[in-house]
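This part of the workshop introduces the protein records we will be handling. A record pairs a protein's sequence with a compact description of its fold. Comparing a sequence with its C-alpha cells is the quickest way to learn the format. To make this concrete, we reproduce a full record directly below:
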Amino acid sequence: MHTYFKKVGCPFARLFPSLFLCFGISLASAQTGPGATDTEILIGQSCQLTGPLAALSSEVRQGASLYFDQVNAAGGIRGRKIKVIALDDAYDPKKAAENTRTLIEQEKVLALFQYAGTPPALAAVPIAEEAGVPFITPFTGSDALRKKFSPYVFNIKAGYSAELETMVKQLATIGVTKVAVAYLNNPFGTDGLASVEKAAAASGVSLVAKAPVEVDRSKIDLAVDTIAKVSPQAIIVVSAGKPSIDFVDAYLKAGHRSTFYMLSVISNAQLVAALGERARGIVVSQVVPSPWNQGIAVSREFQALARKAGIQDFTFSQMEGFVSAKFLVEGLKRAGNKPTRESLVRGLESMGKVDLGGFVVELSPTQHSSGRSVDMMILGRDGKFTR
C-alpha cells in the first residue's frame, strides 16, 4: 500500500490524513518523488561487477562507499540514508541500457551515479535524459559526455581529450617524436585515437603506428607486432583496466621495450599486481587529487576513512569514487527537504564554485562539466605515483 500511494501521488492524503497515519504512512514520504522516502535515498549504478574491468570498477565503488558510509553513520541527508543499487553490465552497452531501465522504472532511483566505462555510459544517457533522471559523474572521460550540453549529465573531472593532449605535449617537450598508439576497439578507444591524432598534428609528433586492442585480449599479438616493428620511442595506450595491462604485458614478454603512457582509468594496484617491477616507469595521466597527498584536505579525509576501514593500499580510482560521492552528497544537501530528480538537478546547478577539500568544482545552469586539471605521474619502485 505504501508503494502504491507513492506511485499515484496520494490524492487522498489531504482528505484522510488519519487513515494514512493508521497504516504507518507519513505525509512527508507520500509526497516525496521517486528515489526518496522518509528514510532512504536510492541511487542507481550500472558498472562492471564481472569481466575484465571488474577490478577497476570495484576500486571506484570502494572509494565512494567510504564517503557514503560516513554520511550514513552520521544520520544521512536530513535523516535519509544513501543506498546505492549496483547492477552488473560486464562492460556490455546493451546490458547497461537494460540496467538503466530497471533502475529508473522498477527501482525508482533518484539519480544514476558513477556509470563505469564509455560504451555503457553512452548507452545509458539517452534513457536517463528521456526520463529526466540526473546522470552524475560517470567513470569515463568521454568527450561525447562533455562537448554537447545535457541538462541531466554532470562531470567533475577533465575529459580524455585533455589527458591525451597533455600526454602528447609532454612527449613533444622532452623530444619524443616517434609515438605509437594502442587503442581499445570500441567508441572509447577510437575517440581517444582521434584526440591523439589531433594533438600530435598540433605538436609536431609523428604517429608511426596505430593498433586496435580487443577487450577479450584476442588479436593482441597482432597489435604488439604492428607497433613493435616501427620501434616507437613511446606508446600511448588508449584503454582502461585489464586490457591496458594485457597489452603492456604482451609487448614486454615479446622482448620489446618502450615507455608506456596510460589514461587515468587504470589502477596502480592492478599495474603492480600484474606487472611487478615491470610496471615501474609507466606514465599515467591523473585528473583527481593524489590519494597519498598529505597537503590536500580531501586526500587526508580519504586516507583517514580508508585506514579506518582497513584499507592500506590506495589508488586514484578509489579517490575518484570518493570525490564523486562527496560531490553527489553536496548536491543532495541542496536538493531540499523533499528531494526529487528535478530538485537535485537544480541543487547541482546552484553550486557555483565549490571546494570539496582542495578539489574545486564549478557548475551552473549552463555549465555541467567541471575539471580541467591534468597531472602526469610516473609509477615508482614502491608502486606509488610521483610527479
Remarks:
- Residues 1-31 have pLDDT under 50 and may be disordered.
